[in-house]
Design brief:
Layout (H helix, E strand, L loop, with lengths): L11 E5 L3 H15 L4 E5 L2 H14 L3 E7 L7 H11 L4 E6 L4 H10 L4 E4 L5 H4 L1 H14 L7 E5 L4 H12 L4 E5 L3 H9 L9 E3 L5 E3 L3 H7 L10 E7 L3 H12 L4 E4 L26 H14 L3 E3 L4 E5 L7 E5 L4 E9 L3 E3 L20 E3 L5 H4 L4 E5 L3 H10 L5 E5 L11 H8 L4 E4 L2 E9 L2 E9 L5 E5 L2 E4 L3 E3 L44 E3 L11 H21 L1
Parallel strand pairs: 1-2, 1-3, 3-4, 4-5, 6-7, 10-11, 10-15, 11-12, 15-26, 17-24, 18-19, 18-24, 19-20
Antiparallel strand pairs: 6-8, 8-9, 13-14, 14-15, 16-25, 21-22, 22-23
Helix pairs in contact: 2-3, 10-11, 10-15, 13-14
The structure holds flavin-adenine dinucleotide.
């Protein structure tokens, strides 16, 4: 015979007051009205109440509301609520105060996210106590007793590393909330972590662990991304985790090659910076670059590819034909691969204006000047007057995206019109957006900074030479790109701009030693292939990069069969 089904335990309302008479009175009134549906638990000091909470937590009980007296000798009500929040972050918080302590209670609204302060005495409870608690219980039930923990990033508006950390998390579609160290919530989080805010940014994980000035590889660990190859030898090593590299990893792994993808930062490449890719086949309403590339990363992993992030390839050693290629990392560790696909894409060129180059003494990058700004920026530019340099689709997409939050967006274009460089659909969208304006034949010739961040720009009309000064705290540059191939100096043949030559383009290049001609995407080193934007004469489009990544795998099979 089975016994009655166990009843779910009632959620708890916990009251704490050091005055036994008051403590009993609160518990009595609460029990009278809520006793049927809630368990009323009372304590007579903060430490006692915390001990009870630990027990409740261990037993898996839910706590809906805390009612804490403000003035308690061992631990004030605010201190208790602060600690209690760590255990039950979603429980609603009420502070009981005497009239004289009203100011402290109001301050507590910021410190502990106080829901309500209740003046003593609360008679009649039907008027003063129950309506308050009813409202809080309703709010608590709306989200349940589940804590919805989230990661917090506390930074400074003009701290470049704070921006980079937010980018890293955003580009991995990792949910977080950002605060500045100056705002009350930011200060409160730093205090709670025992930090004084001198070292920023600080990332506080869902579990409450603070990471002070985390490196990319610490962030990757937080996100559960792999940062170390597990093997010494692979069939295929793909260098670069943009669309071309991700496609190569998906096809390589799905076709049975033991595949590793090496990405120096975070997967996604340039596409991960695109707010909406509208011309990629199969997405009639467009797709965000982050969505496309994080899905692709998971797809590659599902097929068994190892995706390694925050590891930069710094050297490629070719060795004899048919032998393994060796890839070295910054820490001098190496891996071997029977074949390699280079998919290292391009990076933005720097604007040759004071303050806009990493080599300038007064470098404003990350302090108002941004290169290839990514989608997490839209909310960051709320109310600002944003200037975007560039006339290609990437600049147009950024303008559209930022116009949703910015006060105004001005596109600065060197040429006489957008027609030559931007897709027709984007030009139309821009024309129909009232807070975007386009200044053609215009370039940035100077920056003004104050307190180590951008406050203004000097613009020049290329036709008349006239200059004007405009106030701005945000300049985003999308001005063409150069390939990331310096590390391949002397290894694979490249054109005058550094793009890698392949297949038929190698015809006039000395160094090809085999009897057979190079395969289409094969470099001057047999068994080393190229896909995507880094290839000479490539199309510089997502679809082309994806196509080349998958085609390169087909050629890898051919090479391995011959070798
Ligand atoms: C904002 C923006 C919007 C765009 N919008 C569109 C669009 O709407 N439609 C479209 O078709 N195209 C668009 N493009 C272009 C498109 O994104 C690129 O053509 C495409 O991303 C190229 O892919 P890729 O894999 O060749 O290179 P990339 O995307 O550049 O990726 C290369 C990757 O290699 C990594 N890497 C580089 N060197 C190393 C190294 N030594 N070790 C390890 N990793 C390394 C980089 O960190 C990077 O992640 C846009 C580009 C930008 C910037």
């Amino acid at each position: 015979m089975t016994g009655p089904a166990p009843q779910p335990r009632k959620p708890v309302i916990l009251s704490v007051d050091d005055d036994p008479a008051v403590s009993r009175a609160v518990a009595r009134d609460l029990r009278r009205h809520y006793g049927e549906r809630y368990r009323i638990v009372r304590a007579e000091s903060g430490p006692d109440a915390l001990e009870t909470l630990h027990e409740l937590k261990l037993r898996g009980d839910a706590v809906a509301v805390f009612v804490a007296d403000y003035r308690m000798p061992q631990m004030s009500g605010i201190e208790f609520l602060e600690s209690a929040m760590d255990l039950y972050p979603m429980a609603r918080r009420v502070l009981l105060t005497a009239y004289a302590d009203t100011t402290a209670a109001i301050d507590a609204i910021n410190v502990v996210d106080l829901d309500h302060y209740l003046l003593k005495p609360w008679d009649p409870p039907e008027e003063k106590l129950y309506p308050v608690i009813d409202g809080l219980l309703e709010a608590w039930h709306a989200v349940g007793d589940r804590a919805i923990p989230y990661t917090k990033v506390i930074g400074h508006q003009w701290n470049p590393r704070s921006w980079e950390v937010r980018q890293f998390l955003a580009r991995n579609a990792y949910p977080f909330k950002a605060f500045t160290a100056e705002e009350p919530k930011g200060k409160q989080l730093l205090d709670a972590a025992g930090l004084d805010g001198r070292q920023l940014p600080v990332v506080i994980t869902e579990e409450g662990t603070p990471l002070v000035e985390p490196t990319d590889s610490e962030l990757a660990d937080l996100l559960g991304l792999s940062t170390n190859p597990s093997l010494k030898m692979y069939d295929l090593a793909v260098i670069g985790g943009g669309p071309a590299g991700l496609a190569a990893a998906v096809y390589g792994a799905s076709e049975g090659l033991n595949t590793v993808l090496i990405e120096r930062a975070t997967t996604g490449g340039q596409a991960g910076r695109s707010s909406r890719i509208e011309n990629y086949l199969g997405f009639e309403n467009g797709v965000s670059g982050i969505e496309l590339t994080t899905t692709a990363r998971r797809q590659a992993e599902r097929f068994g590819a190892e995706v390694i992030t925050t590891r930069k390839a710094v050297k490629l050693q070719a060795g004899e034909v048919g032998t393994a290629r060796t890839i070295s990392f910054e820490d001098h560790s190496t891996i071997g691969a029977r074949a390699v696909i280079l998919a290292t894409g391009v990076e933005y060129r720097e604007l040759s204006v004071t303050g806009c180059s990493a080599s300038d003494d007064a470098n404003l990058i990350g302090k108002g000047v941004y290169y290839g700004a990514s989608v997490s920026d839209a909310s960051e530019c709320a109310g600002e007057d944003v200037y975007i340099v560039g006339g290609a689709n990437s600049a147009g997409q950024a303008a559209m995206f930022m116009s949703k939050q910015a006060n105004s967006v001005t596109l600065l274009v060197r040429g006489p019109s957008l027609e030559a460089s931007m897709s027709y659909y984007l030009i139309q969208q821009i024309e129909q957006t009232p807070n975007i304006s386009v200044r053609t034949c215009t370039e940035v010739v100077g920056t003004t900074s104050r307190d180590d961040h951008l406050v203004g720009l000097t613009l020049e009309d290329r036709r008349t030479g006239e200059r004007d000064e405009v106030p701005s705290t945000r300049l985003c540059c999308f001005i063409g790109a150069t390939p990331r191939t310096k590390w391949l100096d002397g290894v694979v043949a490249r054109d005058d701009h550094g793009f890698i030559l392949t297949g038929p383009d190698l015809r006039d290049v000395v160094g090809w030693t085999l009897d057979r001609p190079p395969h289409h995407l094969e470099t001057s080193v047999p068994g080393v292939f190229v896909a995507g934007d880094v290839r000479a004469e490539s199309a510089k489009r997502v679809a082309a990069a994806v196509g080349e990544g998958s085609m390169a795998v087909m050629l890898v099979h051919r090479y391995l069969a011959e070798a």
